[in-house]
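Figure 3 (text version): structure tokens given as input.
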């Protein structure tokens, strides 16, 4: 079984609990949403990967023409579709798929979003390259990613054990400098690196980058 398939199975099992859990830092989350909306235009075609249960996509959809939100977990997407129907969001589509899925047309999106997902990818550089291809020239990539190398040593020790017993998915540990370097190598210019947390130490790097 591939790593992607194992990750999909993990998130399928976790989806309902994940959907019910409250956001740990609501104020920080809202700051990230507001900052993202500043870069969105009414005519934009937007692509989100790792959309989970669709909360972020549905909140940002009013700021663009259409938003295609994707995830590898069918159960996550099923919950997102339930939310879209309940909220009445005609300009959002939720689909199961990977970034390099041939269904997504190259050079067709103005903006790509990836929140709390890059550290979960087992082939991050390949994903960033595929994402670069999806964007129009000059298109924007906005992401928010836990830089887990900033966490305590105890957490670093615990992650492999949690993964071994099925309590955590594949997780990669890196710094903000490593991540921005990889984004740059994929053909993006970094516009801004920010932190939006309002509770304790914030390890989530909010990065805005433009396709060269």
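Below: residues designed for each position.
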């Amino acid at each position: 079984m591939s790593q992607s398939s194992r990750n999909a199975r993990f998130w399928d099992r976790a989806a309902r609990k994940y959907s019910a859990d409250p956001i740990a830092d609501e104020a920080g989350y809202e700051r990230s949403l507001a900052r993202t909306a500043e870069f969105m235009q009414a005519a934009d075609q937007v692509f989100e990967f790792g959309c989970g249960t669709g909360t972020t996509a549905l909140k940002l959809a009013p700021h663009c023409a259409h938003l295609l939100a994707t995830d590898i977990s069918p159960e996550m997407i099923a919950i997102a579709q339930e939310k879209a129907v309940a909220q009445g969001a005609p300009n959002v589509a939720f689909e199961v798929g990977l970034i390099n899925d041939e269904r997504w047309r190259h050079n067709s999106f103005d903006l790509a979003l990836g929140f709390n997902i890059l550290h979960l990818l087992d082939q991050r550089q390949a994903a960033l390259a595929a994402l670069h291809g999806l964007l129009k020239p000059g298109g924007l990539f906005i992401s928010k990613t836990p830089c887990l190398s900033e966490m305590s040593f105890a957490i670093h020790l615990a992650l492999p054990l949690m993964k071994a017993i099925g309590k955590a998915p594949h997780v990669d540990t890196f710094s903000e400098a490593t991540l921005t370097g990889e984004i740059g190598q994929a053909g993006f210019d970094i516009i801004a690196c920010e932190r939006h947390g309002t509770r304790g130490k914030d390890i989530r790097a909010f990065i805005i980058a433009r396709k060269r």
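The two ends are 36 Å apart (CA to CA).
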